[in-house]
Amino acid sequence: MLHKRIYQFLIVYAVGLSVLFLVKYGLNLSDYVIPPPKEVWITGQKYWLEYLREVLDTLSVAVFGHILSILLAAVVAVIGRLTNWVGSFIKMGAYNIQSYPIVAVAPIIFILFGDGIAARLLITVMICYFPLLLSFIGIFSEPVYHIEHFYTATHRLTWGLSLRIRVFENIAKLVTVISGSATVAMVGTIVAEFIAADDGIGYRIRIALYQSDLSKILTALFLIGICTSLYLLSLEYIGLRIRKRPGISAGSFS
Amino acid sequence: MHIDLEKLSFGHADSDTRVFEEFSHRIEGPGFNALFGPSGVGKTTLARIIAGEMNGFSGKVASSGLSRILYTYNLERLPDWSGIGEHFKAVTPTSQTGFLNELTRIFGLDPYLESRYAQLSLGQQNRANLTRYLVQDFDVLIMDESLANVDEGTKKDIILLVKKRFPDRLFLYISHNVVEVSRYCKNILVVRRPDKSPQILTVSGFDDMGEQEPERETLERIMLEMMNAS
Questions:
Q1: Which residues of A fall within a CB distance of 8 Å from B82?
Q2: Nearest CB to B79: which of A149, A154, A165?
Q3: The complex's ipTM?
Q4: Are residues B76 and A147, on separate chains, in Cβ contact within 8 Å?
Q5: Which listed site, A16, A210, B115, B222, has its alpha carbon 20 to 30 Å from A26?
Q6: Over the stretch B189-229, which tens digit does the pLDDT of each residue have?
Q7: Residue B192 · residue B41 · CB < 8 Å
Q8: CATH number corresponding to A39-253
Q9: pLDDT by residue (tens digit) across A174-192?
């Protein structure tokens, strides 16, 4: 049985296609602008396997970049809360850099790193990293007063213990933030490939765009949607397992 | 053994309301004393000032022979990553292990040592929280509603155990329960609103040590004194 996330995507995709064909036949647009359903179907059958490989390639970069950005954000957020001034400095820096569109820096990255995997990975990490960092800093610096009080009063509160308490108490929030940033990672990788890479589904979409081949783009979008949904599903499953671990109280998720 | 509150003044930063207005009082120890008064009068604020957990007041809190003041309240929680027994072990000095075992038995926590804090009832949670404070090294322990939701029988056992075990320590017991305060406490410090002077009145309680049942008339008289004072 398909999960509701897959259903949701299929519904959205079907609605999008219907609107597209309604526009085509309503405005009497040529097959060159919007191909007929049969052509989209034939293109899909012809290219789905090749595009699936490209989507999986993109997804693997996105997942790897996502993991890297989670680790990096966690490490920097932990360092950031060690002292007040370092924390404030990192927070301020993250806010400022986050407000700058990282994609605009992408051409520089491609010039410096070439159009291989390093550039794609770096852009993915940069796009994912700052929103994660802000969330992590917020969570790691917010005391859980009712739990920490005893350890503070008895001089037992080390930075490691306070971090453990805060992570444990906010595990649901962290899982949500990480799941949310997975989509951002996928978007970042596709955008990077779209700009300059020579691999991945973003690159294929760029080629299809040059050929004005909407059928190929629609096939790519379908596969991207399915694969991203599956990735999000796996993250949600991991999150669910963590939440169901003994000791994670319902109160932790309020 | 005493705590001197000298010309204590305090008002919340976000309102013009004054909680304390230059009041002075000496809290004599040792013994099981109560902080009593209507809600919002400043009992918790005073307790936190005494415990050194609050700033922004003027005046002075001086104590003689009391170096370690602990404050515990009923909203505290234990982390839920392990059972309460494991938490107790982690925070109990080796010399207190025997006492810890005695406490968990009398507090009725022995069957729940493997349980996580969130799985306990409210009364059990309060007892678990108090247990870990009682095995610490302290001179003064302020118990803010620490025995709320605990049944009367267990509450009696706990208070009598604490009084017998720590005759040389000072306890400040915050509760709205007039009967238990009048029965078990030695001195009842009735905290009053800042427009009343003095802001703290002391009423002598029955100070039940478990040796004799208090007479009904005695308790009624103490309770009447408390109500008149507040």
A1: 247
A2: A165
A3: 0.93
A4: yes
A5: A210
A6: 999 888 888 888 999 999 888 888 888 899 999 999 999 88
A7: yes
A8: 1.10.3720.10
A9: 988 988 898 889 988 998 8
